[in-house]
Specification:
Elements: H1 3-10, E1 18-27, E2 30-39, E3 42-49, E4 54-60, E5 65-72, H2 77-93
Antiparallel strand pairs: 1-2, 2-3, 3-4, 4-5
């Protein structure tokens, strides 16, 4: 899973969210590509690491609670894909 997949398949579905992209070349798990999002009372980040790790963090400002805060290992590609589908559903359904 990588940032290109997010930009081509998920970002177009999030029209009502503000997306901010940033890069950090020397993170804990290699280079990091981060997506920060905000909108519809939700804020969060997705971290795509060059070594294959994925971190998803979503916070509901209206309910004052975290919805997702989890790292996904590189070898669990199916789990990463399911997590991104769940994230997309949360964000799209929250409009």
């Amino acid at each position: 899973m990588n940032i290109s997949h997010f930009k081509s398949d998920i970002a177009p579905k999030l029209g009502s969210y503000i997306l901010t992209y940033s890069s950090y070349p020397n993170g804990d798990f290699g280079s990091l590509e981060r997506v920060e999002f905000s909108g519809n009372n939700l804020i969060g980040t997705l971290d795509f690491w060059s070594q294959g790790w994925l971190d998803i963090n979503v916070y509901d400002c209206q309910q004052d609670e975290g919805l997702i805060n989890r790292y996904y290992k590189p070898e669990n590609i199916v789990e990463q894909e399911e997590a991104l589908r769940s994230l997309c559903k949360i964000l799209v359904d929250n409009k």
